[in-house]
Amino acid sequence: MSVFDGFKFRRVYSPIHQLDPRVKFFYVLVMFVIAIMFNQLLPLILLFFIQLPFVFVAGVQREWVRSLRGALFFAIMIFLFNFVFQYFWTEYPLPPSPSLLEYSIAMTLRFIVLIESFSMFFLTTSPDHLGLALEQSHVPYEFCFAFTTAVRFVPVLAEEAQTIMDAQKARGLELERGNFIKKVRNYIPILIPLIVSAIRRSLELAEAMESRAWGATEKRTNLYVLEMERGDYILILISVLILIFAVYVWVFHREQIPLLTSFLAPLELTVTKIS
Fold it and tell me: How far is CA 24 from the centre of its chain?
């Protein structure tokens, strides 16, 4: 469940934590759009390293690495899916080409870049501030409440699932034993108590909302109001400049972006001549 730990807000004082959630979400959207625009490995590597200074300034390196480690299984699946299907679709029965390998790595890195940016957003954004930002963006309060509640409960359910797994292992349940079908069946004793617990928790939340007359007042007021400061405007400027540069490269120089495997060809030729 380490992937969910990587999305759990950690209250730390840092310049990134003090930024407006709307600005950070705009930055994440820019990273998302750029990652979708390019399918070459070189710009995706650049996009991955661009975000590292934000992670170190926020001081959430350990949680960020944990989120990437948790997404490792899905990254491997994405790589295998792209490599196998693209091979049988475009190159079979010839041997796999280096460009196919680079394309599969690029698609995997695109997924990692998305995990990286969204992990940094949720690690540095309080659910309270996130709900407040949605309200101030004129999103209906019912949707704000549902979204922030989901964000709050995902790490809670992950911790509860881990507790249930530890309890079942202590009783002799071997989750990793057997073939694929057997492993899926091994998780049934985990899912049933987890679903029951989630339903019970939702009923408790509904009772608490009714006891506090949720929805009785149409015009809600908040104790805090989000106001953008100089750091927010700097991040907006950086995001816009990155987006403009990416769109410019995508429109005018997309075909000129070299493959990393093209740099290996002269090296192979040199080695052949020497041998």
Answer: 14
Residue 63, C-beta contacts closer than 8 angstroms, at least 6 positions apart:
5, 6, 8, 10, 119, 123
CA distances 67 to 5, 46, 164, 270, Å, are 7, 20, 21, 41
Q: What is the DSSP letter of 167?
A: H
pLDDT in the model for residue 58: 86
- How many Cβ atoms are within 10 Å of 257's Cβ, its own excluded? 14
Chain-centroid distance of CA 7 in Å reads: 8
Kindly list the distances between the CA atom of residue 205 and the CA atoms of 21, 131, 199, 274, in Å, as whole numbers in the listed order. Answer: 26, 17, 10, 73
Residue 34's pLDDT is: 93
The length of the chain, given as a count of residues: 275
* 231 vs 238: CA distance, rounded Å: 11
Going by C-alpha positions, the residue among 135, 118, 147, 129 that lies closest to residue 232 is 129
Cα–Cα distances in angstroms (integers) from residue 95 to residues 68, 90, 98, 108, in the given order: 31, 11, 10, 21
Residue with tokens 């999103």: 139
Written as six digits, the tokens of 184 are: 């899926």
Helices (H), the chain: 2-5, 21-37, 41-50, 52-58, 61-70, 72-86, 98-124, 127-136, 141-170, 180-186, 188-211, 230-252, 260-274
DSSP class of 95: P
Task: Tell me: pLDDT of 45 over 70.
Answer: yes
Position 239 scores a pLDDT of: 93
What is the reported pLDDT for 170?
87
